[in-house]
Structures are given as structure tokens and as C-alpha cells.
Amino acid sequence: MNLGHFAVIDTETTGLFPGNHDRIAEIAVITMDRSGTVLDRWETLINPERDLGKQSIHGIRAKDILSAPRFMDIASELEWRLSGTIVVGHNLGFDARFLDAEFRRAGLTLPEFYLPRGLCTMQMAHEYLPGAGRSLQDCCDSFSIELRHAHSAGDDAEATAVLLARYMELDPDLGDWDFLLNEAAQTMWVPNPPRQLLEPTHRSTSDSKEVHFVDRVVDRLPEISGPTEHQEYLALLDRALLDRQLSAHEQSALIALADELQISRPTVIELHSRYFSSVAATAWNDGLLTIRELEDLETIAHLLRIPPAQLEVASRTKPRRSAVDSVVAASPRTVLKPGDLIVLTGDMTQPRSTIETALESSGYIPHSAVTKKVKLLVAADPDSLSGKARKARAYGIPVVGEDFLWNQILNISP
């Protein structure tokens, strides 16, 4: 008997409604045979072309998906991986609805028989785990199956594959297993892989070493730039550091501007040093350096890779003001004042209405859309890909994170 394989899938999504505007942000496919042997594990982040929704659930960061493929980019490969298989999922109906919506959006459709004939390990728990909970964690606990990182598509799919294998061990003589796999083999509709398989994009881990953005600045010789170009770079740097973070978008913008203005890496390092000295001089302006100001200097030093010795000197000695007066003089800093328009985007830790009320109480005007009159965009993730965030960047409006909203704008604890 010619048997196909099981394709155990899991998706992480931006929300619950594929027919509305929610999208898949991560997908995994575990290919498994009748014996329960895992033949392949394939997973990738997907750029959903919108904000990521409740990141506290799936843990995907916007900066991780900036270089990830779109669903349309992996649709043909995914179709090939699913062809000739029986699709399996824990709460398969949820994943199936998103798959169907994404394939249709990409201009493709899975065969009508494919998703309906799939197996749902959550529904099968009624038979094999009576009385147990229905969540993936509950089912895995019943068999002591390790679920390493819940709401990670790859680990959830792998745990679901082991769960299916345990079901088959409990009912090895059930003819449905072989019947379904034989049917899958007979109905393979994409026998060959696409010409080019894209490199999957995976989540970054705490162990992964990121290249500092300064090291990604082109080092050219000779340099064709001058004071005007330097001031332009410093102006962008000042705007990017408004919330004392450098998002992936902001790092890319700084790299691109340095390249456009033909500023070399050594000059960028020197400009960062001058900028740091300017901030230190401002902090020392009243003759004292508070704990909060020292923490601010430490944050900037870390972000700009300021040498520890320079940070040490700045934390102990007031810099000479004359040496740094002109650093950001050409470009005034973003200063918020009562009546300014502020736009919010993404799912934050507090309800949108609560945040808007707090902004209004502080004299600001919450605004629903990004226009050139907006002063600031507050995003749940500063690297948000929402339409609001894209438009704010296009207009040169600072995009800051939620911490900046509470700690700097409202000065209250969330």
C-alpha cells in the first residue's frame, strides 16, 4: 500500500479573525509517517504586512519579521509540502480557516477535499483522553509530552505530532490511519517542489548575537561629506533616540542615511561621541547629575557603543559646553506640548480608551489617523508594520514604544 504522510501544522496569528484583517505571522509543518517518525520540521516567521496583534501571546517581535517572507512568497512551497499529506492540527478548524484565507489572498486555493479530511487532535481527545482538558498543554500533560515553548508554531506542531503518535499507539489496529494516508498519496496534486525554496526566517533567541548597527555602516574612503551632512545625521539620531530606544526601523534608517550622505563608519562613531557629549553636557547643566540622568547616559552609551571610559568621565565630570554646543543646534528636539495630536497603534497593556483618557487629562489630543499634523505615534511595538506606523515614518513622525508613553509623556505607572 502506497502511504502518504501526516502534515502536522500550527500557526501563530495576529488575531482570531482571518476573514477580517488578521493574518498568519508564523507557520510550522512537521512531516510524520505512519510509525510516528518525524521526517522533517519546517517553520518560518511570516511578515503579515500589519501589526502583530497581542504580542504577549505569541511572543513574536516586529523586528524579527522585517526580513521575513510574506505568505504569498512561501505559498507555493507550502502547497507542495502539504500535497500528498493528511493535515493535522490541534484545533485544526482555527488553523484551517487561516490557511484557506491566506491561500486565497495569494491567488491560490487548496483542493476542496484537503482541509475537511484533516485530523484534529483536540477533537480526538474526546475519544483517547476522556475527562482530560482540551488544550494542547492538557493533552500533552496526559502523556508527559514536553511542550517546550507554547505558542511557538514549531514547538506546538512538534508536540501535536507526538500527541498524534500516542493516539496511534493507543489504537494501532484502527484502519482509518492507513486508509487516510493511502488516500493522501493517491491525491497528491503538487508532486515537485518549486524551483526556488526560500530561506525560512526564525525567531531570534537570547543566544543569537546581533550585529551592532554601527558595524553595518559602510566604511568608505575617501568620505564625501561635511558639516551639513553631519547635522542631518545627528538630527535623525536625535529623533530616533527620543524614547531612548533604537528600533530595527530606526537603525536601518540611520544606516541608509549614512550611506546616502556618504558618511563613513569612523565619522559615524565620532558623531555618536559628540552626540553623547552633548547629552551629558545638558544633564550637567544645573551642576548635578541625578540617578535618572546617569541611567539615561548609560542607556545612550549602550545604544551608541560609547566607550566605557567616556561614560565614566561623563558620569563624574561636567563636559566643556563649548565643545558640544553645535551638535544638535541645527535641529530642535521633539518637544510635546498641550494640544499636540498623538496617535496610538497596536494592542497595548491598557485598553485604548484608558490611554486616550489619560492623554486627554494631560492636555494632549488622541487622534485616530496619522496626518502631517500629528506630533507622535505611540506603538505597542516600535517596529510595528501597521499602516499608521508606515505612514508616520514616511512623514518623519517619531514612533515610540508604550514605556515612553507612561514614563515620559504621562509620568505615571501603567
From TrEMBL:
Signal peptide: none annotated. CDD domains: DEDDh. SUPFAM superfamilies: BRCT domain, Ribonuclease H-like. Keywords: Exonuclease, Hydrolase, Nuclease. Residues 5-173 form the Exonuclease domain. InterPro entries: BRCT_dom, BRCT_dom_sf, Ribonucl_H, RNaseH-like_sf, RNaseH_sf. Pfam families: BRCT, RNase_T. This is DNA polymerase III subunit epsilon.
